[in-house]
Amino acid sequence: MPSISATRLGTLVLALLAIGCHGSVGELAGRASDEWVRSYNLGPDGEIAITASNGTIDLEGYDGSTVEVRAERTARAVDDEAARELVSRIAINEEVASTRATIRTEGISGILIGVSYQVKYHVRAPHSVIARLRLTNGVISAKAFSGQLIANSTNGGVVGQDLSGRLEARSTNGEIRITMTGVPAGGVSIQTTNGRVDLALPDTVKADLSAECRNGSVTVEGLPFEAFGEQSRRIANGRLNGGGAPIEVRTTNGAVRVRSRSTEL
């Protein structure tokens, strides 16, 4: 005789097939969620790396010494019991060393019809660590962080507020919006495909700017900009306040706007 779990799973598959033929995920009545919580003492120059899909990653810097990670796993299905079963199958894998913690959403294996699930990561990290965040189908956001940030989103954007550390932001099919309180010697590198870029900088920032787009326009607003090298509607090369740290901005299909923080979005 099959176990209760197997019987329940068989019923769930039949129900999902029916939903797939006659309904939509938006009509699913069942919902369940839980939390996965971890903390890591990585020390200065340690790394937190998160790779995920179908959700979000939110990063916040703070003056502590421990990286805190909280993941909210949520599933929708035909009823609450089926949703709870799905949540229990959303796997999160972690690999921890003395100076690095790697977290991956493994997701749910097998063919899923007429259900949905997502994982939302909330991360608090000391400014001394390096954060490597990679997400498919969702938005990466970061605020008040002065550590090094490497953010890569596919089918989603990257949003940063009050950042001051070395930054590498990449997006495919999504916009990138970044507000910096300062630009470190390591500089800023932003690239996106099929999305616009909005980069806000302090009026006093000293930087060498190289901005370019293929289909769109490049504008520099409210900042002391001394042009040099190639210039056009789609290319802007120049110095901000006499030059300094490198800032590189590239997009294929979308506009690039580099502006003062005091200029309206």
Strand content: over 45%
Radius of gyration: 22 Å
Order of helices and strands: HEEEHEEEEEEEEEEEEEEEE
The level of helicity is 10-25%
Sketch the major β-sheet. 19 strands, mixed
Overall average pLDDT: 89
Compute the separation of the termini in Å. Answer: 63 Å
Question: Based on CA inertia axes, which overall geometry fits?
Answer: globular
- Poorly predicted runs: 1-25
Number of helices: 2
Tally of domains? 2
Q: How many individual β-strands?
A: 19
Characterize the structure shown.
By secondary structure, the chain is mainly beta. It has two domains: 1-128, no CATH class; 157-265, no CATH class. The protein has two helices and 19 strands. The chain has helices at residues 4-22, 80-88; strands spanning 30-40, 47-62, 67-77, 91-96, 100-107, 116-126, 130-143, 148-154, 158-163, 167-172, 176-180, 188-193, 197-201, 207-215, 218-221, 225-227, 235-240, 245-253, 256-260. It has a 19-stranded mixed beta sheet that branches. Strand 4 and strand 5 form a beta hairpin. The longest helix has 19 residues, at 4-22.
Question: Secondary structure elements and their pairing?
Answer:
Elements: H1 4-22, E1 30-40, E2 47-62, E3 67-77, H2 80-88, E4 91-96, E5 100-107, E6 116-126, E7 130-143, E8 148-154, E9 158-163, E10 167-172, E11 176-180, E12 188-193, E13 197-201, E14 207-215, E15 218-221, E16 225-227, E17 235-240, E18 245-253, E19 256-260
Parallel strand pairs: 2-5, 2-6, 2-7, 7-8, 7-9, 8-10, 9-11, 10-12, 11-13, 12-18, 13-19, 14-18, 15-19
Antiparallel strand pairs: 1-3, 3-6, 4-5, 14-17, 16-17
